[in-house]
Amino acid sequence: MTNYEIMFIVKATLDEATIKGIAKDVEKLLTDSKSKVIEFKEMGRKKLAYEINKEVSGFYYLINASATHDAIREFDRKLRINENILRHLILKKESE
What we know:
Blueprint: E1 2-11, H1 16-32, E2 36-52, E3 55-67, H2 69-81, E4 85-92
Antiparallel strand pairs: 1-3, 1-4, 2-3
């Protein structure tokens, strides 16, 4: 398995319970594919550098995970079609 760093931004116009639910669903997507979540960090609400879909701020989350390439590809596909996630970025970490 390979280590990845994943950051995603959830719409800030949603209520707090929905935002936390979306974050848990994203984490569950990884764990359901037999990936290991090493760290899950909520970074809070931040102003976006530019407007995305008429949103000016969002809730940022950071995940460090160990997963297979196929699991990450499916995870990426599911995040793209989720309307409540403004942006996401998946980085492959270098081996130490």
